[in-house]
Amino acid sequence: MTETGSVNLQHFKDTIRKISRYDEALNVLYWDLRTGAPRKGADTRSEVIGTLSADKFKLSTSEELGGLLAALEEPEQFGRLGEIDRRLVQETRKDYDRSVKIPPKLYQEYVVLTSQSESAWEEAKASGDYDGFQPYLDKIIHYTNQFIDLWGAGDTRYDTLLDLYEPGMTTAKLDVVFGGLREKLVPLAAAIAESAHRPDTGFLRQTYDKQAQKSFSLYILEQMGFDFGAGRLDESVHPFATGLSPGDVRITTRYLENDVMSALFGTIHEGGHALYEQNIRPELIGTTLCGGTSMGIHESQSRFWENVIGRSRPFWERYLSELQQRFPGRLDVDAERFYRAINVVEPGLIRIEADELTYNLHIMIRYEIEKMIFNDGVKAADLPAIWNDKYRDYLGIVPANNREGVLQDVHWSGGAFGYFPSYSLGNMYAAQMTVAMEKELPGMWELVGSGELQPLKEWLTGKVYQYGKLRTPSEIIEGISGKPLDSAYLVAYLEKKYKDIYRI
Amino acid sequence: MTETGSVNLQHFKDTIRKISRYDEALNVLYWDLRTGAPRKGADTRSEVIGTLSADKFKLSTSEELGGLLAALEEPEQFGRLGEIDRRLVQETRKDYDRSVKIPPKLYQEYVVLTSQSESAWEEAKASGDYDGFQPYLDKIIHYTNQFIDLWGAGDTRYDTLLDLYEPGMTTAKLDVVFGGLREKLVPLAAAIAESAHRPDTGFLRQTYDKQAQKSFSLYILEQMGFDFGAGRLDESVHPFATGLSPGDVRITTRYLENDVMSALFGTIHEGGHALYEQNIRPELIGTTLCGGTSMGIHESQSRFWENVIGRSRPFWERYLSELQQRFPGRLDVDAERFYRAINVVEPGLIRIEADELTYNLHIMIRYEIEKMIFNDGVKAADLPAIWNDKYRDYLGIVPANNREGVLQDVHWSGGAFGYFPSYSLGNMYAAQMTVAMEKELPGMWELVGSGELQPLKEWLTGKVYQYGKLRTPSEIIEGISGKPLDSAYLVAYLEKKYKDIYRI
Prior knowledge:
The structure is a homodimer of 504-residue chains. Chain A is mainly alpha-helical and 504 residues long. Chain A has helices spanning 3-34, 42-60, 63-73, 75-78, 83-100, 104-127, 130-151, 157-165, 171-194, 210-224, 260-278, 295-309, 313-326, 335-341, 359-376, 383-395, 421-440, 444-449, 454-463, 473-481, 488-501, and strands spanning 231-235, 241-245, 248-253. In chain A, helix 15 packs antiparallel against helix 16 (383-395). The longest helix of chain A is centred in the N-terminal third of the chain and has 32 residues, at 3-34. Chain A is globular. The A-B interface holds A 17-18, 21-22, 24-25, 28-29, 32, 36-45, 47-48, 51-52, 55, 227-232, 244-250, 285-286 and B 17-18, 21-22, 24-25, 28-29, 32, 36-45, 47-48, 51-52, 55, 227-232, 244-249, 285-286.
């Protein structure tokens, strides 16, 4: 590399590193707000976050960074970059263009709007009054449409939003995979509803000591290979994971005294996200590549650990006795009955309470509505009726009010259109990865059954975690499976599991 | 005010507000590091702190800020400023000049040096090897002398350092007050040592459940009027308080299973600091005036609550039964015996383990040594011998090694020369304020004896807390007492208290 080239590269990397440090600071501030910051400090705290975000935005959109990018993209210079630096230039270019295309004034208005809109949503959700929220939602849709115009539409306008969370994902691809899911899962859910072999879940509804729940959650995290020297478990109202750096990955859960599984599955879920972040290659630290490659791949890891492993028969054949020891006399059932109970399927109205099977139907409804908004011009006023119709079609039930209908999720109030599909993509990726793991890791289920979870974590580190954003979602799944994303794996997994449980 | 004047003022205040936001972010990052951040994230975290500190330093030393200051200092503009804005300009000028006089390269070298020096001190303290640490200490002294040269010496060179922590304090004043203290406290300590009436402390040395200790600490904080909506209590190796803003003041303590009083007095001490920070006037938020006016006044509040109140007879006549309830069968003594036990005087070698009386002697030793270093050119090599001689003079005991001698405190390794006097100043201010409070708050000790601590907090809010840095330390103490700082109040307080306890 020429001397100018290597000066540019160093300068570029220093800038990226500085941005990543601002990101860590911001993530600590957010984590702190959500895990117990005193409420009376909230106003000054949001000013602090606003100031640091603005300074970070300035760094990320500076002409200087633009100039460095352009210089490094010159074929002569780009050709001499190593693999990581090339990806870093490409990834930064994508972020840079996205940011500089939005006029600062427009973005500032949007930030204020989403903040007001989230508050309006909170009120509307509490009261059930959709009409009060509707004008905000219309505005958010209006701004999002302006962003799509500025960024440029993909094959469809909605594709531009999908790409924000799942690079390379399109409605064309999603229509195929979701179509495949719908075709099989709707009848499967119907057959389950008619089965006479319903799991008995009554024994789960008792009172469970919080400290004992916490101790078991910590134990299972340790079994999964969560590194407590590089992470911690706290409590928050809504569980979340945040990777400040691979050396500091924080997750939270929420302990419910009357539900022994809620905090545990929350912990395993966030623990899956955490294993991903803790095991990214150290050389990616301080770069924008040091994070999950997409929301779908990230979600595949939370769902692999929570559902594929954590709700499996071998897992509980191994761990049930240890759970029982922590709650003497409370869970006096055998592993089979326990396994069936934690896998009960109950079509319901609320996404976050849904079981592993019907969850995907909740997502498809949101996906179809988001497509209608951005590709067909559907307005906020139309959403409650569309929402209710779709619940009737997919799940055979209709919300009695908007609180348990169109108002249930925070996402749209914050402008996160295009995000929902990630959840089902995660389920699909996880099922597809599992088939490969079963082949490549002989006796995988025997390992789970004997509590040897490290080989699973190591396999996933080798195939997924270490790369961060160094590989695209398609490269990851094709590298593992030899095939692109295919919903047939998830269908096969769910059919096998639930036909067995419900004896269909 | 002219239009230019008000534009300048607004611009100036925006800059100060921005700096204060960076301060809050940095304080959250430090708090987080000390309350449980995963150790493997420490390296990236220190880079984050380094980046934000450097950006804050740039803001604080910008030519733009210098220009705004100069404009606002023009008599015509300054004359039209309100009280708060004038103080803000004066305070900012002081900080600004201090920062810009240090060449950035020198400061950068110093930051690296202190970081290395603190590590070297840790090693030396563990091994007792002073020789390994001595070169670092010499360098730190050398840099500090350069700073004194750049800032300009006061009446003595050491005065420049004192002013960093206690604005307006001088060796001339300190010689007087410390002289007064020494004259009375050395013989008092000697008389106590010869007294036959030693308190029995054996009952304090049992095993005390940590959760029960925590619950009592939280209870006492609440009694003091600590606002849990604007603060929190956590654990850390070394207890500390940090005021992010009056709406978010965090303190920590450390629970020792074999010492029931350690965590409690630590909590009350830090709680005193916290009451100060929580009750600063809201209009000072976002300015550099939003903090304690000096380390001495800050320390007066921790010591007032910990010692004057928390180690008083009325306090334990009220609260002992509640402490006993939390540890059934453990503290089966009457309030008088308990009061005597927690006020035992034992001349020792370690400052942080010292009682309320001999503590001041430990401080005087450090004060005299610091004066010798900066006013008489004493070198690091001479310090162990000087240290040991002074302990013989003041306390009648000599360290057996440097670990319990000159190596015991972290302060010098971090360059914090001039800080130690704050601790005794705090004791003196607290005693002087107490005399005023006893006069102005009729039945003050009856209030304490009946657990009504709010009037005390409110009195202090009116006289001290609300002002932040709006008043100087002298203005604060003279406003309360009508007189400047005088060691006679502390002497009288200690003589009365200990002659009673030891029946001298």
